[in-house]
Amino acid sequence: MARLTILGTPFDDGTEAQFLTRFQTRLAKGVGTFVVTANPEIVMYARTHPDYQALIAKRADFVTADGIGILLGARILGSRLAARVTGYDLMQAMLQAAAAEGLRVALVGAKAAVLGQAKARLTAQHPGLNVCYQHDGYFDLADASVADAVVAAQPDLIFAALGFPKQERFLAGLQKRLPRAFMMGVGGSFDVAAGVVSRAPRWMQRVHLEWFYRLLKEPSRIGRMMVLPQFVWVVWRTRHQKGQR
Ligand code: UDP
Known about the structure:
Layout: E1 3-6, E2 9-12, H1 16-29, E3 33-38, H2 40-48, H3 50-59, E4 62-65, H4 68-76, H5 87-101, E5 104-109, H6 112-125, E6 130-135, H7 145-153, E7 157-161, H8 166-175, E8 182-185, H9 189-194, H10 202-206, H11 210-217, H12 222-225, H13 227-244
Parallel strand pairs: 3-4, 3-8, 5-6, 5-7, 7-8
Antiparallel strand pairs: 1-2
Helix pairs in contact: 1-5, 2-3, 4-13
The chain binds uridine-5'-diphosphate.
């Protein structure tokens, strides 16, 4: 898979199906995989937090473009990324595979009630799903007890819905301790799975308006979303400066 870098954060180019094939092959072989689904907010945060940027660059086996902004950023830099690949969609596909194979799954993140409902719904959607460990996301990373409990449960797959950068820091801490596991940060995906937050209709996703749908549903996200025009501007400026050299 080709890799390109946008403002210091690497991205792997591929469709959802291509990523899933790679993930499932590695899982079957017992090769650990750490996936980051990065959006413009993550890229902008990583720019000013070098330890987080280095964590993504050095520790993630795959970084997917989670957001139309990333595809746009690649275009501005004169490259192209095949598709937007979201954490929620990857999680659903990996859970389906896990249920079919009888693999052990750990779910860490979200509020306790949301997590409980997400687990119930996911188990109904994927009959046979074996959730060997679950914990809400409101714990301090300095407290190792959740990480220790995950390791003790020996999951084959771990989904961390703690929001960034917490979820990536949490998973990076587990990488060496669970060297054969598939692990991925999935942001607000448990809220979606629980039905607390709804995803945009398919047609809106196709025309790249999911961000607009989320803004309509949660107007308080406007502050966070303002990072998108900033991101586009900084990428454009980078390109322009490069062009002058
Ligand atoms: N969350 C958590 N622990 C925290 C902070 C947040 O488990 O310390 C959860 C929160 O409940 C939500 C998810 O992390 O389920 C983050 O959602 P957000 O909408 O910020 O993620 P996005 O999909 O935008 O990355």
